[in-house]
Design brief:
The protein is built from 10 helices and 9 strands. By secondary structure, it is an alpha/beta fold. It folds into 2 domains: 149 residues, HAD superfamily/HAD-like (Rossmann fold, 3-Layer(aba) Sandwich); 91 residues, no CATH class. Strand 6, helix 9 and strand 7 form a beta-alpha-beta unit. The longest helix is centred in the middle third of the chain and has 20 residues. It is elongated, with a radius of gyration of 19 Å.
Amino acid sequence: MLRIAGQDLDPKLVVLDKDGTLITFDTLWHAWFNAWQAALGARIPMDDVLRGAISETLGVDSTSGVWDPLGPLTLASTTEVGLLLAGLLYRYHGTPWSEALGVVEGAERVARTHIGTHDLVQPIGDVRGLLQRFHDAGLRVALVTTDERFSTEQSLESLGLISLIDTMVCGSDGIPLKPAPDAGLEVCRRMGVSPAAAIMVGDTIADMAMARRAGFAWAVGVTSGALSGEALASYADMVIPSIHAIEIVAGSDGHVKGEFRA
């Protein structure tokens, strides 16, 4: 049994988001986008008009560099961001569409290689310890992320987490992305768990919307990632600072299999 924000829940499956929930968001993804922009600039002349259009379209403050927490760069998949960038190259640079797609994809590959040489994947606290406690308590754990499978598996492997995830759906798996319910329903199907016996823990409105549309028992928002508690409150059943505010408490037999306190 779990205790979250003072309420006792008895889920069979805990579905987790990755970035902003298990892994720090800003350090990794800001470095990734900066490297992507630099790689694009090495291929396509980027004047102030194009740079401004990229910032406005993706939700980046051109002065402060702050990302809009509700904007595409924060919430969209890498594939979706790539399509937006290709459209901007077509619109503002006159790059033919097929060429624009190739330029954007090539630049993103360079960006992935760049950030792969830096120690940018950092867990939000003792994630491995908490996931181990979930397993010790008999809970199944799934991951649903808009990130691509290759980089997701690399990140989880580097942190020693991949063996503690029972199943995952990634942005490149061909399953409709959050906020559609499909990925949530798919992990429930694989685990043989009713959606009504699952909870979602994530840091975005899309996470909460997926949980609701899939019929999950609870949608739990965390403020360790993209959004504030105020932004999440209208969409989540409860909001907590991070996954480490989740306690594992005594089950119906009175036996405490594991416990974590923030």
